[in-house]
Design goal:
This is Transcriptional regulator. Residues 38-59 are annotated as: Disordered. It comes from Acidovorax facilis. This protein has helices at residues 20-35, 92-105; strands at residues 2-3, 10-11, 62-66, 74-80, 84-90. The chain is α+β, with helices and mostly antiparallel strands. It folds into two domains: 1-44, no CATH class; 58-107, no CATH class. The strands form two sheets. A three-stranded antiparallel β-sheet has the order 3-4-5. It has a two-stranded antiparallel ribbon with strand order 1-2. The protein is extended.
Length: 120
């Protein structure tokens, strides 16, 4: 894989049969390559005209959370059936905003069932 000098194009040479783990590795490499390209990924899931951009959607993804005691950041891992595992390090302000959002959406009459999400 080679990125052009202006970072707007990439040259790929792939002409072989790949296993599932090899595809996962290729997806990660392509994502790393894409992160170096311009234009950058849109900051919202809409283009400049307000239209939706292509996304992958999956109901009820598997997730795991890592929260080391010595670090204020929490890492959330989401498993996509097509992309594999992605990790997101969340700043405490983002954690609070997400907690407020999800708490505001909980039904008021149903008791909360405390079920921890294990880190795998």
């Amino acid at each position: 894989m080679q990125l052009s000098d202006d970072r707007t194009q990439a040259t790929l040479a792939i002409n072989k049969t790949l296993t599932a783990p090899e595809i996962e590795n290729l997806i990660r490499e392509l994502a790393m390559l894409r992160s170096q390209m311009t234009p950058e990924v849109t900051p919202a899931p809409q283009d400049s005209n307000g239209a939706g951009v292509p996304t992958m959607s999956q109901d009820n993804p598997t997730l795991a959370i890592q929260y080391p005691l010595e670090d204020a950041h929490v890492t959330v891992y989401l498993r996509s059936i097509g992309l594999g595992w992605t990790a997101w390090r969340l700043h405490p302000d983002t954690q609070r905003a997400l907690a407020e959002f999800f708490n505001s959406r909980l039904p008021k009459s149903a008791p909360a069932k405390g079920k921890p999400i294990p880190f795998r």
